[in-house]
Design a protein that fits this description.
The complex is a heterodimer of chains A (about 250) and B (about 750).
Chain A (H helix, E strand, L loop, with lengths): L4 E6 L6 H11 L3 E6 L10 E4 L20 H10 L3 E5 L1 H8 L6 E3 L7 E9 L15 E8 L3 E3 L2 H9 L3 E6 L18 E5 L5 E4 L17 H12 L5 H7 L2
Parallel strand pairs in A: 1-2, 1-3, 3-4, 4-11
Antiparallel strand pairs in A: 5-8, 6-7, 6-9, 9-10, 10-11
Chain B lengths: L14 H6 L4 H11 L5 H10 L2 H4 L4 H4 L19 E6 L2 E9 L1 H6 L1 H17 L4 E11 L5 H21 L3 E8 L8 E11 L14 E6 L9 H4 L20 H17 L2 E6 L4 H13 L2 E5 L12 H6 L5 E6 L4 H10 L3 E9 L3 E6 L2 E7 H4 L17 H6 L12 H10 L7 H4 L10 E3 L6 E4 L6 E7 L2 H6 L1 H18 L3 E10 L6 H21 L3 E7 L3 E2 L2 E2 L3 E10 L16 E5 L10 H7 L11 H16 L5 E4 L4 H10 L7 E4 L9 H6 L6 E5 L4 H10 L4 E8 L3 E4 L3 E4 H16 L1
Parallel strand pairs in B: 3-4, 8-11, 16-17, 23-26
Antiparallel strand pairs in B: 1-2, 2-5, 3-5, 6-9, 6-10, 7-9, 8-10, 11-12, 13-14, 14-15, 15-20, 16-20, 18-19, 21-24, 21-25, 22-24, 23-25, 26-27
Helix pairs in contact in B: 7-8, 7-10, 8-10, 10-13, 16-26, 19-20, 19-22
């Protein structure tokens, strides 16, 4: 098959839209286009990315207004039909507000914005978002958010765990899930979750920021690789990685 | 036309009223003479802000003009546009500028700091440049004080919330703590943007018949007289000036950015100016004066936040996130369409006329009609030469006998205390609240000697840093200012960048005090000295006077924002040691100087002595040599030696992810002077570097042939200890903990 078609939704206040486009388009050579939030249709695309940022300023609950943007109707339809949807940071918040993922992202327990590299453990590598990872693998990926404190009621959490929908947990460099490795107070150190059908992923860390060797870290690339491999069936080998390095 | 009070209840303008607006009798007379009549109340408001220190630079401009302001790379004249503009090749230019928001931050730290960031970002994107980085240079009082903690926390939060939401990485800066800033913190924000040469927008009005449009937010009652407020000292009454502080909305600013860049790209925009200080007043008059034309403005067309605003209020409002556009006649609709896409106003409020006057109408009455040239800097705005007198305190500070300081018994303890002093300690608590990575260009963040952002689509990157040790400037303004420039340049050199230009933010006390003005004059000389030697012209900046609280003026603080260019992203290096076995080298000569140092303050509680000497030619040689070594890939790391001296610099280089990394340094690091002076003296023109053993001979020989002192002093170890000449031996982890946790524990 040809290029995977990424559609990156641009809300007013999105500010990681270009970063996602740079990785999917410029670095990976896929087709990565922007979709203005006032559009009513996603058009012909394979993957929807809801990028990071502060949609509508996030003056109300994060993502609470963005979910009413015209494009969200089609995003919901796309997701219900099994389309691949990746919500990063603010995008994750929008997905929970839109009801595509359970739970909510509360204010960080420190009450401060936090921007730093964290370690996250891959809890489930049999998904279309993590197939290029191994189970228990620790990825070093940055977070940058003020409201990333994942919360859900007990039943929801139990369901998430039972169905292997918890995909990433904050952990130490060695992979231990500890309180001190949790940057925001998230329940059970949850950093990213998937919907029941496995086609919608939301995570607070920013994989698009850890994809370029020049910037020091490349673990985030694995999430984009997993998605692309799901469509092309081609695994990215060590050779191609070194060729891609500049 | 009527010039009597035009709106009910609007007062007659008298000398007393003018005085209340901050104008002097001399200025009142000048105003009346230039108009040929007594001004209207609205005109008085216009004159008072345009002739305020903040807008007119009336007490500083004569000296500012003595700064070196030309160079091959400069694309616009210093101070003429919204920001400086420097060519970096590949058809690209860098717009950059630093500005203060000290007074608003002193009374309303959160909004004061936030709108400081917002204002400087607008200066950058009003030129058509996309902001790619911001920096902050902050000064607070003693962090043990509750009020200082409140100011510190809220300034940081204000900067974070604005920059994070806007989506620009905060990559570098500096924070100092000293009692002199107790009631009057300094909040300086710098922004850097990139623009293609053919997309540059200038802040000039031209083309009679073209439309004047106001874009962005609507106009409200916030920030009225902000510029005048910034032109007086902080006092107990300042609390009542809180309404003069603007309120920021980073979300609207982000929309304004995208819409502005889109509009400029459309080709229909003739000129753009940010509405910062003095809002509509400043933008209409300055753009008209620059374009040698006039404007006719109808205030009834300005989108307002509340009804019943008077012409005076509309003209003086400093509501944020607004810009003035001059748009080619007939294409207003195209521009409006772009702004509508982003849910923003773009409204025609007047037109360009050939009268050279700015005429303001409201309700079918002309409320103001003033020749633009009369109001502006470079036109008829007042220019003063102030009296300067060497400050009395210098007689005392200069004669301090540094040898009277007792030699400490425990150097380990001194090092740990220095590492924990808030000025030296890690600013992690601060920079982790800033998004330093958004837009995925940040190669080096606030942990490095300088921030670095790469330029996508090229091999280039920009290094940037702000610097100023105001204690040195206080003790010797000329030398202190030279050091500020030198250190900023040294910092960008240490990461592999060539210093190309500066912007400056000159924070001083009341210029009517001859001793303060002497500090200012000497500091300007110092900046000139250094910029001439380094070939780094001044591209613009900002002067902030009246930084005083009831206990006195802040130390003179001329903050230097340095821009460095990296041609090859692959050659960037960091400040931290990398591998055990690497050799540690000190470039530059040690003199064991202790005046004005953090160590001396720690031991005596005083800011005394002569600041370290600096020879600018030696500094230039050192920087050229180290940059060449980096470009030849001979150095693994390079780190500027500054506050806390050699011992602190070595420790900082040893810190980082590898907990076993340490450093061992022999007696070669000592000059034979007092050991405490050797360890903690802040001698200038020194860089600590590490290199592979196989490269050392080449490095030393290159240094020799460049006439740069260089000596190997020890090596990087895997012992996890910092060992210096038998005087210091601490566990690296203990040192790093002190360094990393100090500020967190102060504010927790």
């Amino acid at each position: 098959m040809g290029k995977v078609k990424f559609g990156i939704v641009v809300f007013p206040g999105s500010n990681c839209d270009h970063d996602a486009q740079y990785v999917a388009g410029d670095m990976m050579g896929q087709d990565a286009r922007f979709i203005w939030h006032k559009e009513s249709s996603l058009g012909d695309i394979d993957v929807v990315i809801l990028p990071g940022g502060f949609a509508y300023g996030d003056y109300l609950r994060c993502g609470a207004i963005a979910r009413f943007s015209p494009i969200m109707k089609d995003v919901v339809t796309f997701a219900r039909k099994g389309g691949t949807v990746l919500g990063i940071c603010n995008g994750f918040q929008v997905l929970t507000e839109a009801g595509l993922l359970p739970g909510a992202l509360l204010r960080n327990s420190s009450l401060r914005f936090v921007c730093k590299y964290v370690n996250i453990r891959v809890e489930n590598c049999t998904t279309r978002f993590t197939s290029a990872c191994s189970k228990g693998e620790v990825l070093e990926i940055p977070v940058a958010h003020g409201d990333g404190n994942y919360f859900a009621d007990n039943d929801t959490v139990r369901r998430l765990v039972d169905n292997n929908q918890v995909i990433f947990k904050y952990c130490t460099r060695e992979g231990d899930v500890t309180e001190s490795s949790n940057p925001n107070g998230s329940l059970m150190n949850i950093a990213g979750i998937m919907n029941e059908s496995g086609n919608v992923l939301g995570l607070m860390p920013h994989p698009e920021r850890a994809a370029d060797p020049l910037l020091g870290h490349t673990d985030g690339r694995k999430i984009f690789d997993s998605i692309v491999q799901g469509f092309t069936g081609i695994e990215r080998t060590t050779e191609t990685i070194s060729m891609e390095r500049r | 036309m009527r010039y009597k009070p035009v709106i009910k209840d609007e007062p007659f303008v008298t000398l007393e009223l003018a005085r209340l607006h901050g104008l002097t009798e001399e200025e009142f007379d000048k105003m009346v003479k230039s108009l040929g009549r007594v001004p209207t109340f609205t005109e008085l408001g216009i004159f008072s802000v345009m002739w305020s220190e903040h807008c007119s630079y009336k007490n500083s401009i004569a000296l500012l003009k003595t700064l070196p302001r030309s160079g091959d790379r400069l694309l616009v004249s210093a101070g003429e546009e919204n920001a400086g503009l420097v060519d970096i090749g590949d058809g690209l230019a860098v717009a950059f500028k630093i500005e203060s928001h000290n007074h608003p931050s002193a009374v309303e730290p959160y909004q004061g700091a936030a709108t400081g960031v917002g204002g400087i970002l607008r200066d950058i994107f009003s030129m058509g440049a996309r902001p790619i980085a911001v920096l902050n240079s902050l000064r607070f009082g003693d962090l043990a004080d509750k009020r200082v903690q409140y100011l510190f926390k809220n300034v940081v939060k204000g900067i974070a919330d604005y920059g994070n939401s806007f989506g620009v990485p905060d990559v570098a800066g500096e924070i100092y703590f000293d009692k002199c800033y107790q009631g009057n913190p300094l909040v300086n924000a710098m922004a850097v943007g990139i623009v293609e040469h053919d997309k540059v927008a200038l802040a000039s009005s031209k083309g009679v018949g073209n439309s004047v449009m106001i874009v962005g937010s609507s106009t409200g009652k916030d920030g009225i007289h902000g510029a005048t407020f910034a032109s007086e000292e902080i006092s107990e009454k300042s609390e009542t000036k809180r309404p003069a502080v603007q309120v920021g909305d980073p979300f609207v600013e982000k929309l304004l950015l995208e819409a502005t860049l889109e509009a400029i790209s459309s080709g229909y925009v003739v000129g753009v100016q940010d509405m910062g200080a003095a809002g509509i007043t400043c933008s209409t008059t300055e753009m008209s004066a620059k374009g040698r034309c006039g404007m006719q403005i109808d205030l009834d067309l300005v989108p307002l936040r509340e009804s019943g605003m008077t012409s005076y209020e509309i003209m003086l409002s400093e509501s944020q996130e607004r810009m003035l556009f001059i748009v080619e006649k007939g294409y207003e609709g195209e521009v409006t369409k772009i702004f509508q896409k982003w849910d923003l106003h773009a409204v025609v409020i007047g037109s360009v006329v050939d009268t050279q006057s700015v005429q303001i109408n409201m309700g079918n009455i002309t409320v103001a009609d003033v020749p633009a040239k009369v109001l502006v800097l470079g036109g008829d705005a007042p220019v003063y030469a102030r009296e300067a007198k060497e400050p009395g305190y210098l007689a005392k500070t200069r004669t301090f006998d540094v040898d009277s300081v007792p030699i400490p018994r425990d150097f380990n303890d001194i090092l740990l205390r220095l590492l924990g002093s808030p000025t030296i300690a890690s600013k992690r608590w601060v920079y982790e609240q800033y998004d330093c990575m958004v837009r995925t260009n940040t190669v080096m963040d606030a942990r490095g000697d300088a921030g670095i952002v790469r330029i996508k689509g090229t091999e280039k990157a920009l290094a940037m840093k702000t610097d100023c040790n105001s204690r040195y400037v206080y003790l010797n303004p000329r030398r202190g200012a030279q050091i500020a420039v030198a250190e900023a340049a040294r910092n960008v050199v240490c990461v592999g960048a060539r210093p190309i230009a500066i912007t400056n933010c000159l924070n001083f006390g009341n210029p009517y005090d001859p001793e303060i003005f002497w500090q200012f004059r000497e500091a300007i000389k110092g900046i000139s000295d250094a910029c001439n030697v380094f070939g780094t012209p001044v591209t613009g900046g900002n002067v902030s006077f009246y930084n005083e609280d009831p206990t006195g003026a802040v130390y003179p603080t001329p903050v230097i924002g340095m821009l460095g260019l990296i041609e090859d992203q692959g050659k960037i290096i960091g400040s931290r040691f990398s591998s055990p076995g690497d050799v540690v080298i000190v470039f530059g000569k040690s003199h064991a100087e202790i005046g004005g140092s953090e160590y001396l303050f720690l031991q005596t509680g005083q800011i005394v002595g002569e600041p370290p000497a600096i020879d600018l030619e030696s500094e230039k040689r050192l920087q050229t040599c180290v940059l060449e070594l980096i470009n030849q890939r001979l150095l693994v790391s390079a780190h500027d030696i500054s506050e806390g001296g050699l011992a602190v610099a070595l420790s900082e280089s040893a810190f980082g992810e590898n907990v076993n990394l340490g450093v061992t340094v022999g007696v070669g690091a000592l000059t034979g002077a007092r050991p405490d002076f050797d360890l903690f003296g802040e001698d200038q023109t020194r860089i600590i570097a590490s290199a592979r053993p196989s490269h050392v001979a080449d490095i030393l020989s290159m240094a020799r042939s460049s006439d740069v002192p260089a000596v190997t002093i020890g090596s990087v170890t895997d012992l996890g200890r910092i060992e210096i000449a038998g005087l210091i031996d601490i566990g690296r982890e203990e040192g790093e903990k002190k360094y990393e946790d100090s500020i967190t524990s102060c504010v927790a």
